[in-house]
Design a protein that fits this description.
By secondary structure, the chain is of the alpha/beta class. About 45% of the residues lie in helices and about 15% in strands. Strand 1, helix 1 and strand 2 form a beta-alpha-beta unit. The protein binds D-mannose (DNO).
Length: about 375
């Protein structure tokens, strides 16, 4: 498996000279300054590639080439957006970048309620509290229907949290929920979020599936011609939030997406942490079932709680059996004769990580710990 490292370019306080010391071979990056829906110009792609190569890395994966909200909603001038997406793919292919990750989560990308939850022996981690998310939806957004979307104990705990919360606590929760959106995108305040949520009113799971199928139908043939493998990233958390449908949360969802346009270029980013937060997802089984369609791998772990909350655990300490997952992936590599790019996804903030800036989840030392542990598993399994 090919070791990669996510680097946010000009938005990343961690330099490629530091990444070099982790031993990773490839870089996962994106042009985060370009607004969603606009073409990625070939020159900008070439410049990023040159920067990466100057530090003796290769640019292995684009994460992400974002999908504009109009495509997810099925509104507006989507023909132009599809054309732009195809042009960006062609420009990437012309520069030799052939693995492209994206997601189809409405409005928000990955979502947490705590960016610095304490880890027992020191350091901090990311956490999703169902209670705080319920409080956010019910009380801060005024979405009463959310009472039925969360476990009763989460609603009760969220109510208790809200009653004693200060305006600063609430503001921090809003900012935390918005923190998963990297780069040049809108981060909403409460009024803005209500407006954009309104624009999704009535959109069902089936509608969102139809819109994903249309997107795939529009871009996968081009990707195939260009030799690009597209790989959808699962929902994180793998459940509906804010009353919005999510359609890439379970093995059944993935099966539906794979058959919607049944060809290798329509593939999966296997994210063990995202999928691993769903009680019914069996990650080694998912890795085996979709072995032929996995083009990119995020290895991370999560510890689930009965009310729907989860904490990002150290890479080898959560509910997901990463040794078994990696074993499946190594078998897929042999069968397909490929070297799958993977990255240690997220990391705790450890030691001096908290003394500097970093993109939430994307610490230097914490991720290096994760990568080192994963590297050890791979070495042991490959003998
Ligand atoms: C979180 C990431 C996601 C991922 C996108 C892909 O840490 O794994 O934000 O990049 O969902 O489109």
């Amino acid at each position: 498996m090919r070791e990669t490292w996510r680097w946010f370019g000009e938005f990343d306080p961690i330099g490629l000279n530091e990444v070099a010391q982790t031993g990773a071979a490839g870089i996962v990056s994106a042009l985060h300054a370009i607004p969603y829906g606009e073409v990625w110009p070939r020159e900008a792609i070439a410049a990023r590639k040159a920067e990466i190569e100057a530090s003796d890395f290769t640019w292995d994966v684009v994460e992400s080439l974002p999908v504009h909200e109009d495509i997810k909603r099925g509104t507006g001038d989507i023909e132009q957006l599809f054309a732009n997406y195809r042009t960006s793919l062609a420009n990437l292919a012309a520069e030799g970048v052939q693995t492209v990750c994206y997601n189809f989560m409405p409005i928000l990308d990955w979502t947490r309620t705590d960016l610095a939850a304490p880890v027992p022996r020191g350091g901090t981690c990311l956490r999703f509290s169902a209670a705080k998310m319920a409080a956010f939806e019910i009380y801060m957004l005024g979405r009463d229907a959310a009472r039925g979307d969360y476990h009763p104990s989460a609603v009760a705990a969220g109510t208790a949290w809200f009653e004693v919360s200060t305006p600063e606590d609430q503001d921090l929760l809003l900012k935390t929920i918005m923190a998963g959106l990297p780069g040049a995108v809108d981060r909403y305040d409460i009024a803005g979020l209500k407006t954009v949520l309104h624009s999704y009113a009535g959109l069902s799971h089936d509608d969102l599936r139809d819109n994903l199928k249309q997107f795939l139908t529009e871009v996968i043939p081009t990707a195939t011609e260009l030799g690009i493998n597209m790989c959808i990233h699962p929902d994180d958390p793998p459940r509906d939030i804010l009353g919005l449908p999510r359609i890439a949360s379970t093995a059944d969802d993935i099966a539906w997406i794979m058959q919607a346009v049944d060809t290798p270029a329509n593939g999966l980013s296997l994210c063990t942490g995202s999928l691993g937060a769903h009680p019914e997802n069996d990650l080694p089984a998912i890795a085996q079932t979709f072995a032929s369609r996995i083009h990119f791998v995020h290895l991370r772990n999560a510890t689930k709680q009965p009310d729907g909350s989860f904490t990002e655990s150290a890479h080898l300490e959560g509910d997901v059996d990463l040794v078994a997952v990696i074993d499946e992936l190594l078998e897929a590599e042999t069968t397909r004769d490929v070297d799958l790019p993977f990255r240690a996804d997220h990391g705790h903030a450890l030691l001096t990580d908290n003394q500097r800036d970093f993109q939430p989840g994307y610490t230097l030392i914490g991720r290096l710990r994760g990568l080192s542990e994963l590297r050890g598993i791979i070495a042991a399994l490959t003998g």
